[in-house]
Amino acid sequence: MKSPWTRETSHELTTAQISTSPTDGYAMGWLTTKRGWAGASGRTLTHAGSNTMNYALAWLAPDAGFGMIVVTNQAGDAAPKAADGMIGRLLQWRTTGE
């Protein structure tokens, strides 16, 4: 069976359809922005959300072939801060090895 996921599908789902600033946009549920750690293009996709019991945060750098996902079994005000901290730690580890 042939996969319905094609290069065109990927492009459509990850390309900003709405611009929210000169560098940021919205692409089918993903926020798009630029980050220095994301390779030559700097292109990143991010999404975060909660079902009121759990929290998840994803950062993808498709042109660099790199992504990070942090998932908690807790929601509330502390969860986004903890997830952001873990993403920062993962980026530090990726760039410095420490």
3D structure, described in words:
This protein has 98 residues and is of the alpha+beta class. It is 28% helix and 33% strand. The mean pLDDT is 92.
Question: What's the short story on this structure?
Answer:
By secondary structure, this protein is an alpha+beta fold. Helix content is 28%, strand content 33%.
SSE inventory with pairings:
Blueprint (H helix, E strand, L loop, with lengths): L6 H8 L3 E2 L5 E3 L2 E5 L8 E8 L4 E7 L4 E7 L5 H19 L2
Antiparallel strand pairs: 1-2, 2-3, 3-4, 4-5, 5-6
Percentage of residues in strands = 25-35%
> How many beta-strand segments?
6
| Derived structural class | alpha+beta
Approximate helicity band? 25-40%
Oligomeric state:
single chain
Key words describing this protein structure:
33% strand; 6-stranded antiparallel β-sheet; 6 strands; single chain; 98 residues; alpha+beta; 28% helix
